[in-house]
Amino acid sequence: MTRPESRLPGRPDERAASRSSAPGGCADPLLGLLLVVAEAAGGALLALWLGLRGLARSRAHEMPADKGVSAPPPVDPGTDWTPAIAVGVFALVVACLAVALLRGRWHWAGGMQVVVAVALGAMILAGVAEEGSRKPPEPAPAWNSPPCRSGGDNSECARSGG
C-alpha cells in the first residue's frame, strides 16, 4: 500500500514544477533576439564575401592576360555553386543551433532559430531554382550585309559597313 503523501513520478504537481524550472524565463526571448541579430551580421558578412568573390570572378574573365593581344570573347564559366553551398552550410549551423536550444527547453530562442533556418532554406531553394531556369544568352546573328552598290562614297555605305 502506498501512502497518500508519497509523490509518484508524473503527478501533476511534479510536472508543473519541472515546467517552472525550465531555463530562460525572460532571457529566452532575449537570447533568441540576440542570436537573430548575430546571424544577420554573419549573413551580411557572408553576402559581402560572396559579392566580392563574384565581382573578382567576373573581372577575371573580362581582362585579357596579355595587354598586347586581344582576348577571345569570354566563355560562360558555368554555374557557380559556391553561394548555394555557403548559405546551405550557414542554414545547417542555424538548424543545429535550433535543435540544441529546443532540446535544452529554450523554446523562444529555438523557435526563432527554426524560423531563420527555414527562411535560409527557402532562399537556397529559390536561388537554385532561378539558376536552373536561366538560359544562356542567344548568340548574336551572324549575317553579312550586302555590299554597297552605290560606289562607296556616300553615307549609306558608311553606315552599312560596306
Explain the overall architecture:
With 162 residues, the chain is mainly alpha-helical. The chain is built from five helices and no strands. Helix 2 (27-62) runs antiparallel to helix 3, helix 2 (27-62) runs parallel beside helix 4 (107-133) and helix 3 packs antiparallel against helix 4 (107-133). The longest helix is centred in the N-terminal third of the chain and has 36 residues, at 27-62. The mean pLDDT is 77.
Order of helices and strands: HHHHH
Strand content: under 5%
Radius of gyration: 31 Å
Percentage of helical residues? 55-70%
Q: Overall mean pLDDT score?
A: 77
Number of helices: 5
Shape estimate:
elongated
Distance between the termini: 112 Å
Count the E strands.
0
The structural class is mainly alpha
Largest sheet: none
Catalogue the unreliable spans: none
